[in-house]
Amino acid sequence: MSPAMLGLVGMIALFGMLALRLPVALAAGAIAIPGIAWLGIMSGETLSHSIAAIPGMMQDLLHPDRMAMVALFVLLGNIAFYAGISTRIYDAARIWLLHVPGGLAMASVLGCGGFASISGSSVGCASTMGRICVPEMLRHGCDPRLATSSVAVGGTLGSLIPPSVLFILYGLLTGESVAKLFIAGLLPGLLSLAGMLAVILWWVREEPGIAPRPAPAKESRAEATLALWPPAILLAIIIGGLFSGLLSPLTAAATCVGLALAIGVLYHRLSAEVLWIVFRDSAVQSVLLLLIVAAAALFLNFMEQTGVGLAIAEWARFSGLPVLTVVALVAVICLLLGMFVEPLGILVLTLPVMAPMMQSYGMDPIWFGVILVKLLEIALITPPVGLNVFVIGSVTRDVAVDQVFAGVARFLLVDMLVLLVLILFPVFSTLLPGLMAP
């Protein structure tokens, strides 16, 4: 068996294992380690020598600074959740938008965007905000399709708005600047948010009965706005610090962790018992995430050695396929994979081919990273898998999953339109990173 054929078999095997819902780290590692060993034997090396070379492949990737950055952003998300910081954007938006038709659904989208941006987890946002927003909307008489789908799609904003876990993984695996990727996701994230709000406005206008006007809020708008200062400061530190070049991602994460801890203690939300839960969960999540990074790096190394990704990229280039055609094919493939594989799995499965394709066509890796993450965001709500949809269905058992998908379908159309805009106009992704301080 030739190396290229071995790489192709490895990709097919990984797809099968991920479609069967095996953990990404286990699936990628189970294929990469034997594959690397076999390639070493094929080149005349001993088995022990091939295996001994594996730790060196991850040495640069798992640098202490990079591992600390991942752990700190995970810790920030957990502290912000238990300190009550993540939900404050929803609380304020709910009060300000109560008088607007569909205002509760809009507040849910805004709240989910804020929660997901601070926590960095779209699925975690869907789980938490689903328990908070959906019951309240149902209690006010909102249609179950609108109530559940607005939270499901709002949670996907965490994939683009910093700090995004997917951008961190993409940056670590491709060697691109995580800071630039964070900033690059801002305009596409805001564009996606505007599209979601537009869908709610249109939907409520077409079917006025799906979102009855609730009673006026008893809370003061001024008090609600003042309560926004904790998440506003955290986001300002991350975005402003990275954009100005004053802070690195590691320093921004550490600064925000310290501030979030102080806020939690100030508001008496972080007792000793809660802090134990925060640090325990953060440690487990960080280790799992780093395992995925390590396994993905090994799989990328294995695929690079087989040359299958480079062969596909060269075939596409010499076939005369235009750049936009290649990106469109990538989009179709990712959307199809999204029907069977979770987003992290799609990232690991496609990067071995996408990375050589970027180099062969001279694509801007920041722009391509935004396109890929947007595709992974769409995969979170694409049937039949739609991870966010099933999370919402599991936490709101009164609403069937098919009703959630029925509501999400309206948002999918706008998401595809936003994706098309990002593909045709790269400036939405490259403008802000180009203005960053060196």
From TrEMBL:
InterPro entries: DctM, TRAP_DctM. One of its GO terms (molecular function) is transmembrane transporter activity. It is found in: Cell inner membrane. GO terms for cellular component: plasma membrane. It is a multi-pass membrane protein. The chain crosses the membrane at residues 67-85, 105-126, 146-170, 182-204, 225-244, 250-270, 282-303, 323-354, 366-391, 411-432. It comes from the Bacteria. Residues 12-426 form the TRAP C4-dicarboxylate transport system permease DctM subunit domain. Keywords: Cell inner membrane, Cell membrane, Membrane, Transmembrane, Transmembrane helix, Transport. Part of the tripartite ATP-independent periplasmic (TRAP) transport system. This is TRAP transporter large permease. It comes from Paracoccus alkanivorans.
